[in-house]
């Protein structure tokens, strides 16, 4: 039995965005305690990181209590884009008191992104989800390491605002490209899709006459009459019993 392919187009998109997410988180992980130290509030470093975690927990609870209709991959990309936008306001923070609520808001999007990521792996690689998870976690770790390394340099070179700006921009670009690629990869709806479930149907599940043009020959209206089977007949046959009888 041939194993299903692992690196599908959808998984490649997730890996690329996960690297960008790791970079963003790595930049913020170093920038947050560095900012607290610069403001003379080193003791609040842990509380600031906890504020992000608190937002993540709250976002996860809210997200998990709802029944979402969109695909998990789409939800993941949207959540990462929202996270990217939420990482921009901390640029203007001037103290731990102003940074903490902004980090709570940022964390609200991180929880749903993580949940959607795990769901997407089950959808994209159902038979190799565990292997796909190792790829995703490795991609995130690579991004985090790169973000950690770049954050200190950016602070010394440009200031406290630089890591948050870089995190927001990097993740926004990756998520936007992922959404664009995901949208482009969806097949266009064709006329034959009308035969899919959900199409308006007639007796016993067959299509209504107005959708069946060309599928059956129809006598002139003045020279036929239709005799439909009673609704009390069993529903086993998936056919509509229509008998055309010529009028005298």
First-to-last CA distance? 63 Å
- Total domain units: 2
Q: Supply the CATH class of the largest domain.
A: Mainly Alpha
Strands side by side in the biggest sheet: 1-2
Arithmetic mean pLDDT? 79
CATH topology of the largest domain: Growth Hormone, Chain: A
Runs with pLDDT <50, length 5+? 188-248
Sum up the overall morphology in one term.
Answer: globular
Q: From the coordinates shown, what is the CATH architecture of the largest domain?
A: Up-down Bundle
Strand content: under 5%
CATH homologous superfamily title of the largest domain: MFS general substrate transporter like domains
Approximate helicity band: 55-70%
Rg calculated over all Cα atoms: 28 Å
Largest sheet: 2 strands, antiparallel
The helix-strand sequence is HHHHHHEE
Textual characterization of the structure:
The protein has 248 residues and is mostly helical. It folds into 2 domains: 176 residues, Up-down Bundle (Growth Hormone, Chain: A); 46 residues, no CATH class. The protein is built from 6 helices and 2 strands; from the N terminus they run ααααααββ. Strands 1-2 form a two-stranded antiparallel ribbon.
């Amino acid at each position: 039995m041939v194993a299903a392919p692992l690196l599908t187009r959808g998984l490649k998109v997730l890996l690329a965005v996960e690297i960008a997410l790791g970079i963003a988180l790595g930049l913020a992980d170093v920038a947050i305690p560095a900012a607290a130290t610069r403001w003379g509030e080193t003791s609040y470093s842990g509380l600031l990181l906890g504020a992000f975690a608190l937002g993540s927990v709250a976002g996860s609870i809210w997200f998990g209590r709802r029944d979402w209709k969109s695909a998990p991959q789409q939800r993941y990309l949207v959540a990462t884009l929202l996270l990217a936008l939420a990482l921009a306001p901390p640029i203007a923070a001037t103290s731990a008191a102003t940074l903490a609520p902004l980090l709570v808001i940022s964390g609200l999007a991180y929880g749903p992104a993580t949940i959607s990521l795990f769901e997407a792996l089950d959808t994209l690689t159902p038979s190799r989800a565990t292997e796909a998870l190792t790829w995703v976690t490795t991609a995130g770790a690579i991004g985090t390491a790169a973000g950690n390394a770049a954050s200190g340099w950016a602070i010394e070179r440009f200031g406290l605002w630089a890591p948050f700006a870089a995190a927001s921009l990097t993740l926004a670009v990756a998520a936007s490209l992922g959404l664009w690629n995901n949208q482009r990869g969806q097949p266009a709806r064709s006329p034959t899709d009308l035969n899919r479930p959900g199409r308006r149907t007639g007796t016993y599940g067959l299509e209504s006459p107005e959708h069946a043009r060309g599928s059956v020959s129809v006598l002139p209206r003045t020279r036929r009459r239709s005799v439909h089977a009673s609704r009390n007949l069993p529903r086993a046959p998936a056919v509509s019993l229509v008998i055309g009888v010529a009028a005298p």
